[in-house]
Design a protein that fits this description.
The structure is a single chain. With about 190 residues, the chain is of the alpha+beta class. The chain has one domain: Trefoil (Acidic Fibroblast Growth Factor, subunit A) (Trefoil), CATH 2.80.10.50. The protein has 4 helices and 12 strands. The chain binds 2-acetamido-2-deoxy-beta-D-glucopyranose (NAG) (5 copies).
């Protein structure tokens, strides 16, 4: 009797776990282009990257002036342009090497919402661009808005990075270049 109860409890526990996992896991087609840590992906948890806009070649920059504003800026090797990618088991966080703050946004994820940083992590989904698989798009989870360098990818330093509905513009796509940090470690 006890054994039966235990077994049915275990079975329901197992079923619950299996059910939860099934809900969280992306579908098969998503697995083919959505980025999560796996051997074939350059993006892994705990690595440091500069993130280059494909159109402008400026990088995601945390303002040294206020430690808050996120814009595209020409590459200068500063830690305020370096981001650690952290996998949470479901999505990604981007943590500033300079301040430890996380890339996020204020308010609702819509067209023109500026990126900013906060002390609490924001979840992001990284996807391969479907046109050029070596480039990436970063989406607010469960939305159609992704990172967009303002003004169709204006290359001027200080150009805001916002969320915008995904369309084919390459100023919405990004290149991840692994940072000095790991090169330095290799040299040790
Ligand atoms: C996105 O949707 C999935 C599936 O409904 C859910 O598990 C996940 O928590 C959602 N993510 C966010 C950040 O809301
Ligand atoms: C930004 O953060 C860095 C690192 O925490 C700190 O050294 C610097 O003084 C801060 N700058 C401003 C303007 O708050
Ligand atoms: C894909 O984008 C990269 C830049 O990230 C570029 O070097 C490469 O030429 C592009 N490939 C094609 C087929 O356009
Ligand atoms: C986004 O940032 C730019 C400047 O960086 C500013 O002009 C604009 O008003 C901001 N947009 C919102 C909705 O706050
Ligand atoms: C946001 O931008 C996308 C792409 O330009 C557009 O299709 C969509 O209608 C816009 N959404 C709103 C609410 O303006």
């Amino acid at each position: 009797m006890l054994f039966t109860k235990l077994t049915s409890c275990l079975v329901s526990l197992f079923a619950l776990t299996a059910c939860t996992v099934a809900v969280v896991l992306p579908s098969r087609s998503e697995l083919e282009s959505r980025v999560y840590p796996r051997a074939t992906e350059p993006i892994q948890s705990g690595l440091v990257f500069t993130i280059h806009n494909v159109k402008a070649d400026t990088v995601v920059d945390l303002s040294a002036g206020d430690n808050k504003t996120i814009t595209g800026w020409s590459l200068n090797g500063g830690k305020n342009q370096q981001w650690t990618t952290i996998w949470t088991g479901e999505s990604w966080n981007f943590q500033s090497v300079e301040t430890g703050l996380y890339l996020g946004f204020t308010g609702t994820a819509g067209n023109g919402t500026n990126l900013t940083v906060a002390s609490t992590p924001t979840a992001w989904d990284i996807w391969h661009d479907t046109v050029n698989e070596t480039n990436y798009r970063i989406f607010a989870p469960n939305t159609t808005v992704n990172w967009d360098l303002w003004g169709y990818g204006d290359a001027i330093s200080g150009d805001p990075i916002t969320l915008w509905g995904a369309w084919s513009g390459i100023h919405q796509t990004w290149r991840f270049v692994q940072g000095m940090h790991s090169i330095y470690l290799l040299m040790l």
